[in-house]
Amino acid sequence: MLDLKVLTQAVGDLEEEDVMDLLNGFVETKPSEAEAQVAVVACQDGMAIVGDLFEKGEYFVGDLIFAGELLTEAINVLKPVLGNQENVVAGTILLGTVHGDLHDIGKNIFKSMSEAAGFEVIDLGIDVAPETFIKKAQECNPKIVGMSGVLTLAIDSMKETVAAIKAAGIDAKIIIGGNPVTTEACQYVGADRFTTNAAEGVKICQEWV
After folding, report:
1. What are the residue boundaries of the B12-binding N-terminal domain, all occurrences included (predicted)?
2. Phi-psi region for residue 100, left (φ > 0), alpha (ψ -120 to 50) or beta?
């Protein structure tokens, strides 16, 4: 029987070998889809530990990147016993780094974590113009639009993009993330929520759906 607490802690400690051993042994027992979903939640709880340690300064960006890769690897092990994933998509997130900013580490971490949480993520990449966000949003009708930026200038690009999205009548929740975002910046931009922590950002998206 899979010890969920041990699995959660192994993910939180970034012990890749332990996580894989636990999950491969679990899959060999031919668990039900419901049991596999519980294992996914345990892995996600481990990511919450990672996020907390990053906020405390005990983990660094490299650890976050590795954690995102570890979570993706864990989900891939579980996929054969998770059944038809098309039926459990939590929602669609349209994601991109805004115009004028070329950073993508935080965006990519958020993408990995969101996909592991059951979201379909459409990643537009970096330096994404407002019209590109709008065109794709009209095509795929996402529940959530995520905008990332590291540079201070990204705040004005986010504001411009949010205004364009609302003017186009696109009905989606908007979350922004990155080093320069604050409560004040979120209000200025016109976004629904903000985060500087990828794990927290996924939790917010889960609340919305």
Report:
1. 1-90
2. left
Q: What is the arrangement of strands in the sheet containing 91-97, beginning at the earlier edge strand?
A: 119-123, 91-97, 144-148, 173-177, 193-195
| pLDDT per position as a tens digit, 90-144 | 899 999 999 999 988 789 878 877 887 789 999 999 999 999 999 999 999 999 9
Tell me if 4-86 shares its fold with 89-208: no
Are 98 and 162 a contacting pair, CB within 8 Å? no
The ranges assigned to domains in the chain are: 4-86, 89-208
Q: Quickly name the fold that domain 4-86 has.
A: 1.10.1240
Q: How confident is the model at residue 83 (pLDDT cuts 50, 70, 90)?
A: low
Quick check: 157 and 186 in contact, CB under 8 A? no
Residue with tokens 């054969």: 80
Q: Which fold has domain 89-208?
A: Rossmann fold (3.40.50)
Q: What angle do CA 119, 111, 18 make, to 5 degrees?
A: 90
Query: Are 174 and 165 in contact, with CB atoms under 8 Å apart?
Result: yes
Structure tokens at 122: 């459409």
Model-level pTM greater than 0.85? no
Q: Rounded to an integer, what distance in angstroms lies between the CA atom of residue 160 and that of residue 110?
A: 22
